[in-house]
Design goal:
Shape of chain A: globular
CATH class of the largest domain in chain A: Mainly Alpha
Number of domains of chain A: 2
Order of helices and strands of chain A: HHHHHHHHHH
Distance between the termini of chain B: 35 Å
Distance between the termini of chain A: 32 Å
CATH class of the domain at 113-232 in chain B: Mainly Beta
CATH architecture of the largest domain in chain A: Orthogonal Bundle
Largest sheet of chain B: 6 strands, antiparallel
Helix content of chain A: 55-70%
Oligomer: heterodimer
Structural class of chain B: alpha+beta
CATH topology of the domain at 113-232 in chain B: Jelly Rolls
Helix content of chain B: 25-40%
Number of helices of chain A: 10
CATH superfamily of the largest domain in chain A: RNA polymerase sigma factor, region 2, helix turn helix motif
Number of strands of chain B: 11
CATH topology of the largest domain in chain A: Rna Polymerase Sigma Factor, Chain: A
Strand content of chain A: under 5%
Structural class of chain A: mainly alpha
Bound molecules: zinc ion
Chain lengths: 201, 236
């Protein structure tokens, strides 16, 4: 489950003044191959990546996913830009892509070419000048906004988004009609959109 | 800027990484044209970042999925996991730099582009009728069971009225077309379900090229269906 404010965490996400400066640590990994800095990133994120894998029902491959993602973080640390996304968002997208890759490996067809997962999930225009102020605050605001969602909507979003379940599966799990579930998801998307847009001004 | 977008729930699933590959391809082609969806997606990815950072950590380096009670045991298994990781990083050749980043800034962004043997106009199009041609990508790219094709409709020509047995996603790559529900231009993302009958007509000024993703064959319903069907069938 999402942690509530009551269950305070020793290390919160980046970009809100608490906890390590992930951008700086990743910079040290990128430019100096700094193992100690990498270890800090690992200590925080590896257990969360593993939890994500388990939530996605990939118990068997959870350790493999952790290793794949952290290897990729080590190799691509120089591509991280804190003006584009916070470190946890960046690491989330790597985790998501590597998860898709692991699943794709199982279902390979005889097709001539494989379209790169990363390319399929890439946001094309990354204009740093526009984004620089936005990235850190987007995640902070997102965190607040999620906590403001009514519980039934938050659960629906979490199950679809974080546990990778289909709408049908989630509807059955929550014992509501499919239409009701879709309604909740749409409402929550609308609310998140409104809450986030309010901060962009 | 396009006027027709994937809906919120599709973007949510795309960001979560649970959308099927072929659908993801269609969304990704649309994103190349659409700043609005790009921005929405950045926010949705931040949702993933928040969920990841707020998740209850699991124990790494061990096979159980619970955090051991004692923190020294926990640290021990983290140590072990980190050792394994560094050993692996040390033993593997660094991956060759992927040539991404350079093509990103191009205005016309299509992740399929580098898998096509030539530019859209010079493809080895298979003529279906005098006015409609297709280029089948189903067996070219690895996208699961969906039928993936490029379609080219001659300027002003009409595709026979048809329904779909499955869902049809279309992204306009060039030119435009209209149907009973609207007019579509380059970049537009159009989703049609099985209940929908339509007969797209290409706009007059230029040939229309679309990416079409179909999760089941289409079915022609007009009077010409009998003889057109075998010609246009999306045969495996
Ligand atoms: Zn859009
Ligand atoms: Zn159609």
């Amino acid at each position: 489950m999402l942690r509530t404010k009551a269950q305070s965490m020793s290390k919160t996400g980046p970009g809100n003044g608490e906890g390590p400066d992930w951008g700086e640590l990743l910079g040290r990994v990128a430019h100096h191959g700094d193992t100690a800095a990498f270890r800090k990133v690992y200590d925080h994120f590896a257990p969360r990546i593993k939890a994500y894998a388990i939530n996605q029902g990939m118990n068997q491959q959870a350790e493999e996913l952790v290793q794949e993602v952290m290897t990729s973080v080590w190799r691509n640390a120089d591509k991280y830009r804190d003006s584009l996304a916070s470190a946890s968002t960046w690491i989330f997208t790597i985790t998501r892509n590597q998860r898709i890759d692991l699943l794709r490996k199982k279902g390979r067809t005889k097709a001539e070419m494989t379209v790169d997962t990363e390319e399929l999930w890439q946001i094309p225009t990354e204009d740093t000048t526009i984004r620089s102020i936005e990235a850190g605050s987007t995640e902070k605001k997102m965190k607040e906004s999620i906590l403001e969602l009514p519980e039934d909507q938050m659960i629906a979003v979490r199950k679809v988004y974080y546990e990778g379940k289909t709408h049908q599966e989630v509807a059955e799990e929550l014992n509501v009609p499919l239409g009701t579930l879709k309604g909740r998801l749409r409402l929550s998307m609308k609310k998140l959109r409104v809450m986030l847009e309010a901060t962009e001004l | 800027m396009s006027a027709h977008h994937p809906d919120d729930l599709t973007l949510l699933e795309y960001s979560a990484g649970s959308l099927g590959l072929a659908q993801a391809l269609a969304v990704s082609v649309h994103l190349g044209y659409c700043l609005q969806c790009q921005s929405q997606l950045r926010k949705l990815n931040a949702l993933g970042g928040v969920l990841l950072s707020e998740t209850r950590p699991a124990s790494v380096g061990a096979n159980d999925d619970q955090i051991p009670e004692r923190s020294d045991v926990q640290n021990e298994s983290l140590d072990k996991g980190f050792e394994q990781l560094m050993a692996r990083i040390g033993s593997e050749e660094p991956r060759a730099e992927a040539p991404t980043g350079t093509s990103v800034s191009k205005r016309y962004h299509n992740p399929l582009e580098r898998y096509l043997p030539s530019s859209l106009d010079e493809l080895d199009w298979q003529q279906q009728t005098r006015e409609i041609a297709k280029y089948d990508l189903t067996n070219v790219v690895d996208m699961g069971s969906a039928r993936i094709t490029l379609q080219r409709i001659k300027a002003g020509a009409k595709v026979p009225v048809h329904t779909h047995r499955g869902n049809e996603l279309t992204v306009v790559l060039k030119g435009g077309f209209s149907d009973e529900l609207g007019v579509y231009h380059a970049g537009d993302y159009i989703a049609r379900d099985p209940s929908h009958h339509h007969s797209p007509t290409a706009l007059q000024n230029e040939d229309c090229i679309c990416l079409t993703v179909l999760d089941a064959p289409m079915r022609f319903t007009g009077p010409l269906m009998r003889w057109l069907n075998p010609l246009l069938a999306w045969k495996a």
